[in-house]
Amino acid sequence: MFKFFKYLLISGAIVLSIFILFTSFNISSQSKLLTAGNLKSRKFYVKKEILPDHSLYPLLMVVDRLRLSMADRERRIYLLTAYANRRLFYASRLINKEEQALALTTFSKSQKYLNQALLEARLLREENTHNQTHDQLIFFILEELDYHQEFLEKNLDFFTEKGQSVLKSLNEETLLLRAQLDQ
Question: Over pLDDT 90: what percentage of the chain?
């Protein structure tokens, strides 16, 4: 009987901790975003995908960060590229919803993930110049980069002049990292 009560108490504490953690992330992210003046408040909706305007999105970001922190080097590069692609998809959905500010931050986060993947792939190549697995990884990233470039060219006019300048700056960094990786 005592073990059951102890188990119930521990389970309740874990559930309460998760609830408090989620609530604090949600409140923290909303207050930062709302004081920045560039985003609407988050919503809760039931759909297959959870976009950055969803109230559960901060929880997904925490999971992404945990997965990145626990991954080995090669897996981390794949994850960074996958996260870049996912955020690119989210940005396209937000463009369709005409949520310009949120689409901009989502797309810029996509570019930052891709740039980090390029940087880490370059460092990996510098350490091991003739590794077939690493060459396949680099080829994968470069293919995804082409897709991101097409998206940028197609959707750049959706953003304000200031947003375009942010994206162009990130794109310059991307092109520089690509040139370094190609060497």
Answer: 39
Q: Indicate the residue type of 33.
A: L
Instruction: Compute the C-alpha angle 29/81/127, nearest 5°.
Output: 120
d(CA 161, CA 183): 33
Q: pLDDT tens-digit profile of 90-104?
A: 999 999 989 899 999
DSSP category for residue 40: P
Computed on alpha carbons and rounded to an integer, the radius of gyration of the chain in Å comes to: 20
Neighbour-count burial for 50-81, b at 16+ CB within 10 Å, e otherwise: bbbbbbebbbeeeebeeeeeeeeebebbebbb
For 97-126, how does the pLDDT look when each residue is reduced to its tens digit (9 = 90+)?
898 999 999 999 999 999 999 999 888 888
| Alpha helices, H only, the chain | 2-36, 57-70, 73-96, 100-127, 132-155, 161-182
Highest mean pLDDT among 11-15, 82-86, 142-146: 82-86
Give the Cα-Cα-Cα angle 100, 167, 30 (nearest 5 degrees). Answer: 45
pTM comes to: 0.72
| Lookup: tokens for 85 | 């692609």
Q: 181: helix, coil or strand?
A: helix
Burial degree of 131 (CB within 10 A; 0-12, 13-18, 19+):
middle
